[in-house]
Design goal:
CATH topology of the largest domain: Aspartate Aminotransferase, domain 2
Low-confidence stretches: none
Largest sheet: 7 strands, mixed
Number of helices: 15
CATH class of the largest domain: Alpha Beta
Oligomer: single chain
Bound molecules: pyridoxal-5'-phosphate
CATH architecture of the largest domain: 3-Layer(aba) Sandwich
Radius of gyration: 21 Å
């Protein structure tokens, strides 16, 4: 690879090694569903895997490959598989790595639909699952059964901001012949590289930080080893949850500024967190960059920065939280996260509303919890907006 020894931000611009016959400086959109074979033998060789020519866009496409190669490099994996959404990444992973009769252990505070699709749908096909507070390694240990095949971790967890020690869980997983899968959406490879900490498979909702502009939905799976990469790619192709070339092009464009976007948004988040922590109307706040975060030391060890996601509860619970959400003017009241714009939402009635209330409570997702995704606006404006909305309570 031409750019092997360049830094992370340089890889965001030049990584992946894309080149085409016309010398295009950026990756073009190959908006085609199918590709011409040179002759019948070439077509047969492509299908036999003896030629690396493209066949059909569900199977592979140069724009999508450029993105896959770039992200595989950023996460230090063998290869990456682009998929239509973050949830397509989750279901492809479950389908590829779990069989009937297998068991999975996962974080109680995992992204709502990652849990719903397992508990309500994969359970129909005989896949079992147990959800525990994975920040406590003893709880994971206790949940592992003889048929456990996958440990599925989200760290920081959504929306509790609980941190799981990836090196420790990777060791535990491998001692028990399990694979460690990590949802790295909240960090992006800029802040955390789970494969380097021992994970086997990592995935992202690229809808969030990687694309970063709230204008597409997309997902990607990165495998450390060739065998799992091939399994995952075959599953994506057969299930048909491929990316679209235009979608991949948008992500490649957004990805270039990942580093500077996160630098700015986490700098803003630190200031917003300090403001909220001192505010008399705030009951509690969880942000990995605050010394009050129960796992502050682990955050410092495992993550290269603290990110831009904050959870907090206003005094007065749900009712007061609603007043806050109804009165912000700069922040947008919307789900999703990791974009250039500041977003606010209420997990118990929005992103995590399909989860059982008891499961939500066990995971620490209280009814009053507000999730705040800090954008790259002027931080004075974000704080002034929160200040005026909190004054209305
Ligand atoms: C959004 C999100 C997903 C799902 O991604 P989609 O692109 O919305 O399908 C999965 N995990 C986390 C942590 C997320 O934030």
């Amino acid at each position: 690879m031409k750019h092997k020894n360049i830094g992370f931000n340089s890889k965001l611009i030049h990584g992946g090694g894309f080149e085409d016959a016309l010398g295009s400086a950026t990756v073009p959109i190959y908006q085609t569903s199918t590709f011409k074979f040179k002759d019948a033998d070439h077509g047969a060789a492509c299908f036999a895997g003896e030629s690396d020519g493209y066949i059909y866009t569900r199977i592979g496409n140069p724009t999508i490959s450029a993105l896959e190669n770039q992200i595989a490099e950023l996460e230090n994996g063998f290869g990456a598989v682009g998929v239509s959404s973050g949830m397509a990444a989750v279901t492809t992973i479950y389908m590829a790595l779990l069989n009937q009769g297998d068991h999975m252990v996962s974080s109680a505070a995992v992204y709502g639909p990652s849990r719903v699709v397992m508990e309500q749908h994969f359970s129909r096909f005989g896949v079992e699952s147990t959800y525990v507070n994975t920040e406590n390694i003893e709880e994971i240990k206790a949940a592992i059964k003889p048929n456990t095949k996958v440990i599925f971790i989200e760290t920081p967890a959504n929306p509790t901001m609980a941190i799981t020690d990836l090196e420790a869980v990777a060791k535990l997983a491998h001692e028990n012949k399990c694979l460690l899968v990590v949802d790295n959406t909240f960090c992006s490879p800029y802040l955390q590289q789970p494969l380097n900490l021992g994970a086997d498979v990592v995935f992202h909702s690229m809808t969030k930080f990687i694309n970063g502009h709230a204008d597409i939905v997309g997902g990607i799976i990165i495998a450390k080893e060739e065998a799992y990469y091939k399994k995952l790619r075959t599953m994506m192709i057969n299930m048909g949850c491929n990316m679209d070339p235009h979608q991949a092009y948008m992500v490649i464009r957004g990805l270039k500024t990942l580093g500077i976007r996160i630098d700015r948004s986490q700098e803003n988040a630190m200031k917003v967190a300090n403001f909220l922590e001192k505010h008399p109307k705030i009951e509690w706040i969880k942000y990995p960059g605050l010394k009050s975060h129960p796992q502050y030391d682990l955050c410092c060890k495992q993550m290269k920065g603290f990110g831009s996601m904050i959870s907090f509860e206003v005094k007065g619970g749900v009712k007061a939280g609603k007043v806050l959400m109804d009165n912000v003017e700069l922040a947008i009241l919307a789900v999703s996260l990791g974009g250039v714009e500041t977003l606010i939402q209420h997990p118990a009635s929005m992103t995590h509303s399909k989860m059982e209330k008891a499961s939500r409570e066990a995971a620490g997702i209280t009814d009053g919890l507000v999730r705040f995704s800090v954008g790259i606006e002027d931080v004075e404006d974000i704080i002034a907006d929160l200040d005026q909305a909190l004054a209305k309570i």
